[in-house]
Amino acid sequence: MLNKSNNNARPVLLQVKDISKKFGDFYANDTVNLAIETGKVHALLGENGAGKSTLVKMMYGALQPTAGRVYWQGKPVSIASPAHARELGIGMVFQHFSLFEALTVAENISLALPQSLRQGDLSQRIANLSQDYGLPLNPDALVADLSVGERQRIEIVRCLLQQPKLLIMDEPTAVLTPQEAQGLFSTLRRLVKEGCAVLYISHRLEEVKQICHDATILRHGKLVAQVDPQVETAATLAQLMVGASVHQVSRDANGQMGDVLLSLSHLKQVASTPFGVDLVNVSLEVKSGEILAIAGVAGNGQSELFSVISGEECNPSQDYIALLGHVCDGLNINQRRRLGAAFVAEERMGHGAVEHLSLTENILLSRHACNDTESSLNLGWLGIDRHQLSQLNETISAEYDVRKSTQDATAGSLSGGNLQKFVVGRELNRKPQVLVINQPTWGVDAGAAALIRQAVIDLSRQGSAILIISQDLDEIFELADSIAVMSRGQLSSTYAAEDLSREQIGLMMAGSHEQTDRATGA
Amino acid sequence: MSAYEAIILTIITASTPLLLAAIGELVVERSGVLNLGIEGMMVMGAVTGFAASYVTGSPWLGVLAAVLAGVATSMLFGLLTQTLMTNQVATGLAITLLGLGLSGLIGSGFVGLPGVKLTSVSITGLTDLPYVGRLVFDQDPLVYLSVILTLGVAYILKHTRVGLIIRAVGQNHHSAHALGYRVVTVRYACIAFGGATSGLAGAYLSLVYTPQWIENMTAGRGWIALALVVFSTWLPARLAAGAYLFGGVWILGLYAQGMGIGIPAQLLSSLPYVATILALVIISTNRRLSVINTPASLGQGFVPDR
Amino acid sequence: MQLILEKRSQASSIMNLWSPVLAIFLTIIMGGLIFAMMGKPPLTALYLYFIDPLTSWWSIEEVLVKAGPLVLIGVGLAVCFKANVWNIGAEGQLTVGALMGAMVPVLWGEWQSPLALLAMLCLGALGGALFGLIPAWLKTRFGVNEILTSLMLVYIAQLLLDWVVRGPWKDPQGYNFPKSVAFEGWHLLPMWGDGRMHLGLIVSLIAALVLFWVMRHTLKGFEIKVVGSAPRAGAFAGFSHLKMVWFCFALSGALAGLAGLIEVAGPIGQLQPHISPNYGFTAIIVAFLGRLNPLGVIFAGLLLAVSYIGGEGVQIELGISDKTTQVFQGMLLFFILMCDTLILYRLKWIGRQVNQGSQVNQARKLSEGGAS
Questions:
Q1: What is the ipTM of this complex?
Q2: Touching partners of A (3+ C-beta pairs < 8 Å)
Q3: What is the C-alpha separation between B232 and B229, in angstroms, rounded?
Q4: Looking at CA atoms only, how far is residue C221 from chain B in angstroms?
Q5: pTM, whole model, 2 decimals?
């Protein structure tokens, strides 16, 4: 554990005073105050959409505040650009990496360095520094060939080369295995010991309690509290973040499991693009009444798996997929829907829904080819039955608590949580016998997440087979009856949820099952 | 001059405008911008180049005017696509249509007038070398310039920081912006470079290739240059090879017509266009190469958050 | 001060309607400036351009005759562009359509019956569609960019037509002019009015109205919109992007081919080296000016037709090169694209963060000085 150093206040490195940021009529940040001290890990907590990213982008010069001041080492500054921020000594590791896939590691790092640091043998220095901090990297590798964890190392190394006084990390562990996260924490502890300050953005409370000294909590763009995370409990922190006590998802111990409704046997697929992941010998079975969760770090073949199961990528022969007893040989996504399956894609905007289309039209997106609604919605040359659609829209909105500005708002005007409730509700409304859902609650607020998870559980208890793909272990343990882990396009065997610990899953995420499974014959 | 020398010389002459226009577009596309307006910028370069040299009597002022006209036209494209975020495909088409019209209007007073030819630069002593002497050392200055530009672009893209930044901006403009690079400024600069070389290509047509002004004298060369960039998979060396190959096909058709070998002239004239389509098909069979080199944000506008 | 774009939270429905009007207005102003620069009286020239063609029944008929092919091709392209399929080779499809349809009068000149005309219309559409399917095939089979291939095919088609009318299909009694036999009887479209209006205009109108219904109300129209604007969502909805490419090229090719046949079987009455004043390219402008909406395309087609007739007018009256027509058309497309920006964005002037004042700037200089 950490030595608590909260009582001895240290010099303030960066301070923001009454800072606000307005996008159109919307305040992403509203008079926020924050002070970061040297040699400490400062947590910035808040739900998705609370304004954390906006705030740090202003500290990093990527956005300009609408009002308020920033002080660096006690002096007022206006951070004009990321380059200026780096000059001051601020480094940032983004949640969505700012990397270039077709460039090498060294080129990627060079792009972020000021003139003075580019001289000499950059590759050698990268190798040295990454060795020193336990972040191994090959400077000549193409980023496209690296794993997510390795990519994060590039981001960190390129910050460290500039010897920053403040390191900002935006949700760094979201893409790491638990073991990789522990490795990151020891790097951070060492940095802090060397006198660096860290601003750590997260909504994972256990981590915050583990490594942070101070915590600032945002809600709806406003500052709600500044607390000592060592004193608070995870529950009190959660309450501050969400603003009310979160509804707990309830799951009766074991539902009745029936026949196998979805099965894959030895599925293989070569990636369609050079940057994709090949699927290798994936097998699984989901029974009626069962929730099977596939855990794994993003980018290990989950989206490829989703598009193969859904039939979005229609391959000539797919006799290795069976839905409700039918072999899906060459069936497209709509034919699979007609068999009784429903799919929820990972990206809600642009994949599950179209931004500029209204909600009713977005319903049509998947429901134009479902047995229950097909014939009533599509009248051929006579057109689409708009009346039926808007009734369906009302039903779904009421059932799944979709909050919208107007009766038939565009998908783009909904908040992330409400849109996710809509795209999930659109599928659950028809009570599908098989549901495949990729990242059910990624990036949505706690209230919406609870509602969606409860709805998924309720569906399974009515006898549907549900396959969840998720990188959120908390979610997986909350929902799953059984768990399998995906890494580099390979899927582990399936285990009962209660038989697995986080650490075991973490090891499998890192690929331990890739060899051992076959050896043990599991 | 031997027949072989004459053929090679005409091939070089036919290839140079393609190479000039395409090398600029290669840089533009590397920065993530798809400018389909080459034909328009080229024809504007051709007409202003001709007009300026006719009025002043100096072919060099003509070249300068052509470059300026190309840049000005490309900046119009830049203004629309980079500042006003219009669709790049449609805007490129608009540039081409506008350029063809405007050049016709400007050039209506110059049709049929004798042009001023840009003379060749011979390097004394070296032109007498056997076989290659006249080919390598007795060319017009724009041929040398096209070669220098190609080598320069190849070097800059691969080995310099400017090149790295251009590639970075073209691959992922969000990341480049997050690192503090001015995506829009970089792209404006590349678009201007593309405009300049297209203007040069146009000047080559109206001051060297056929020193006179003929309406629509670009005859689809701008589009072929675009195809060449795809064919080259964004690599300057392949681009140069492709340009000379195409010049060859073009000249082959002309020679065959001249010899009257019984194939309809129209069929031979369509050779370059058929060859373009074939080249695109051939290059597409190696999809991995194309995909890896394709600037990932090609054709997408970039609006930073503020 | 700096001019920036700010994204609107929702597309502006007012600008949606007004942007074409604003674009036309700007084009007229620029046009006036160009005329003034050429030393011509701008107001007279503009009057001759845009108003005079509408003042006599004769010229209104001419406008309608020109608008026919523009609308017919324009609605097809509007569907293509909506689906994000870039067919810019309509001029070539028009040419091949005319060639295919002309097989009936040239090769089977004896066959005089309403069915012969029907066959010509069908062959025209078929020819355009088949020629359009070449880039579609290259795109779906090899992933070749359809913009480049469809454009290259224009040159090929025009050279093919040139060869045919100078070679095998040349009228033996035609004094060696590069023309086919003149079409007669049932090989010509029914005409009326002063002998210029023809059946083709009704075909254009019907095509526009049908496509309007399809785009507005049917699932196919929905499919076109979704595949065009959000391809991944299109895949999720089970709409095949590849099939869409085939569909769009077949449809727009058929309409362009039909337009070509209608030209040679209507106003022209035979095959000749040039059968279209760039209708296939001008139709691109028509599609955009019509906001990719088939009803809008009807109005846009009429406007562009006026510019053709007006262009001829100023050439005769003021001695201005007919190239001004192409300049006007190019400028119009430019201004439409510019004005369309205002539907999604609003323009805004921003100053340098005034509220932070000069002291911050000074402080920044200080801290920079300190850091270096």
A1: 0.87
A2: B, C
A3: 5
A4: 22
A5: 0.88
